[in-house]
Amino acid sequence: MPIKPPALDDRSYQDLVTELVARIPAHTPEWTNPRVGDPGRTLIELFAWLGDTILYRANLIPERQRLAFLRLLGMPLEAAIAARGIVSLQVDDEKNPAAVEVPPGAVIGKPLPFSTLQYATAYPLTARSYIKRQLTDDDRKVFDQLRRDLSDVYHLAPDNMDGYMTTEVFEHGEMNAAGVDFVADSVDKSLWIALMAPDVKVMAQVRKSLERDKDSGPRALNVGVALGYDVPAMSENLGNRARVPVLWEITTPWAPGNKDGAPSLIVLEELLDTTQDLSRHGIVRLSLPAADSIGAPSNDVRISPSAGVGADSPPRIDVAEDAARIVAWLRLRPQPSYTITSLKLAWVGINAVELEQREALPARVLGVSDGGSDQTYDLGTHAIGGVDTGSLTVEVGDSGRWAAVDDLGSAGPLDQVVHVDGEAGTLTFGDGVHGRVPPTGMQVIVRDLRVGGGRTGNLPPGSLGAVDTVLDRVTGNARKPDKPLKVLQALPTSGGTDHETVIEAERRIPAYFRHRDRAVTAADYRDLAKRAPGVEVARVEVLPRFKPQERQSDVPGVVSVMVWPDKPTADFTAPYPRADRPLLESVHAFLDARRPLATEMYVIGCAYKPLGVSVAVQIKDGFAREQVLLAVRLALRRYLWPLPIGLDGREGDWPAAAVPSSEAQRVDSSADGGYPIGRSLTDRELEIVVARVPGVAGVSPVRLFETKNGRLAELAGAGKALTTFSLQPFELPELTALMVTEGLDAVGSLTVPFGSGAGGNAVYVPVVPEVC
């Protein structure tokens, strides 16, 4: 909706009638029954109607002025951004499997309309990913016991032989959020993807689906890839992620010239790569060779004793039922000439396609030009969502396509251009001086209109069900797919944001006048970082002259921007919110285009310093013990929480009396809320926070703990003098251990961090192969 200022007079017709009727006793007390239908009541309603029309016209005056100024600024409301994701398409017909062509624009209707962005071929195949995992110490003990016997079987020297464990990754097609490092954890720096038929009985039909059609080109396979992000707290190298040149290979059914019987591998050509050499999430479309050149080696050691042996052999699968369904192996590895020690993937799947939470609408006629200047047409999309301005095309009669531009003021009198407001859903033509006026009587037609977007499109994995319609390649009309297509959604859809509200737009105007969409001052960086599209930023701190990789301050020409993601506060326990790589990259890309040329800018996450707190309290009579202790814990956690939580959670925070004079000279508050960054913490400060909790009669000296040699050790002088938990200018405390008790003395030892999320209690068991 366009920006609308408050009305000068918001009284309605009924309000005016009620007010006039209420004045009757004061002016005409003899009129005792002003009922509906009375002639006097009719006159009142007539004057109320006239007054309502006058107020309506009066309210238009400031609105037109306000909109005129905003139009000069070029500041319409920002449109909603559509959520995006990657899914796999699976043919849901095990008895009669066949490949299904899915052109771009296929629609997944439930729970929200999503449409695919690339061409895909859904083969009746499933995929399982494996790595040749390096042996652990326990595995190696078993391997060393069998080394001599294995050397006799494979005719290899015992000292020139090593082992591996076939390990499935991304089990059941699910995402591994931590990522699988197939380069560092495998013996051959490769990820092997088994292309499997749904059943051995339909193996012949599955192979036939890989044959190319007479009327179309070579077959191609879409592979979806999601990267495993691992971002340290003070990561500074956040430009474009380094590209990794890789090879995609597929196994063949023969092994010409190979002495060990290992299969040959065919390098596949990449027809499309939206991952940009594994630098981002996306899909890779691989051209497949002829069907008779695709095959898999035998996994039966009775037929092929050297199955799984050698660097170019796929891992051996010892489950006969699974091995019998393998059609071929797909191999992913870095190019041999490229040196890399680590590469994490969170998910890999076949028959993959990217999708977006938008709905395609048919071509429509918006109206007929009257030859006037500044003509505006409504697209009629208010109830559906924002408009994708990059996809639609505008045609005016037989004059051809009119290009969409952001600013009509820069157009010439003969330029066929139109301005599209994606949020308001309108088209605006020029006035004959800035942009050509559409000829009189010509129809205005819009095509390729796609609408949607918003936070509702951010769905968890497993939310999408099936493909409803696909576009016919000949007619372009929507129809049912040739075979039922299930949607396997292992990754969440993300990046969707709602359209800007009127209040948000009005708040943005002063900031725009201040920074003019350029990042110069600290306030500019803070305002612009929060406006980064596709991400939600809860807090921004700007560290001028701070170089993160060297932990050095007062470096001329350097600015570091620290961001936190907007996440639910839950119970305010550790681990605290941390920025992931997509968030940092999005903010960096947005700010990088707006920073001064000579400024060296870094976008980083926060560095947390683990903190332990132990406190004992005395409880007033009439208060429940457990409720008071719970309230004390919550008060401490809210006080140290890094994100803003509203005025209700900040009442009484950072008491001045608890801050020593040396600390009072430092920055004592955060621009966005949350505990101030770099501000050292004292035990007296926390005592005041605890004392303000209802039901607390007294507070014993607070004990503070910091991490030393992997354990929480009490700070020197705790309980006697003023104890300070020191922080660097780029650090915040992270409350990983908290002990609140009733009594006179606080607990003096915190051995197990509470809610650290480190996963240190995991029990690892040795993996013993069933077949050796």
The count of strands amounts to 40
Strand order in space, largest sheet: 19-26-22-23-24-25-20
Low-confidence stretches are: 256-261, 647-669, 752-772
β-strand percent reads 25-35%
Question: What is the CA-based Rg, rounded?
Answer: 34 Å
Number of distinct helices: 13
Distance between the termini: 68 Å
Give the mean pLDDT.
Answer: 79
Short description:
By secondary structure, this protein is α+β, with helices and mostly antiparallel strands. The N and C termini lie far apart (68 Å).
How would you summarize the topology of this molecule?
Blueprint: H1 13-22, H2 24-27, H3 39-73, E1 84-91, E2 100-102, E3 107-108, E4 114-116, E5 120-122, E6 126-134, H4 137-154, E7 164-169, E8 180-181, E9 191-196, H5 203-209, E10 220-227, E11 246-251, E12 265-267, E13 269-273, E14 282-287, H6 320-324, E15 326-334, E16 344-350, E17 352-356, E18 358-361, E19 364-368, E20 376-378, E21 386-387, E22 393-396, E23 401-405, E24 417-421, E25 426-429, E26 443-447, E27 449-452, E28 470-471, E29 478-479, E30 485-488, H7 502-515, H8 522-530, E31 537-544, E32 558-565, H9 581-592, E33 600-604, E34 607-619, H10 625-640, H11 647-650, H12 661-664, E35 681-682, H13 683-691, E36 696-699, E37 703-708, E38 711-714, E39 724-725, E40 731-742
Parallel strand pairs: 23-24, 32-33, 34-40
Antiparallel strand pairs: 1-17, 1-30, 2-5, 3-4, 4-17, 6-7, 6-9, 8-16, 9-15, 10-14, 10-16, 11-12, 11-15, 13-14, 18-27, 19-26, 20-25, 21-27, 22-23, 22-26, 24-25, 28-29, 31-32, 34-36, 34-37, 35-39, 37-38
Helix pairs in contact: 1-3, 8-9
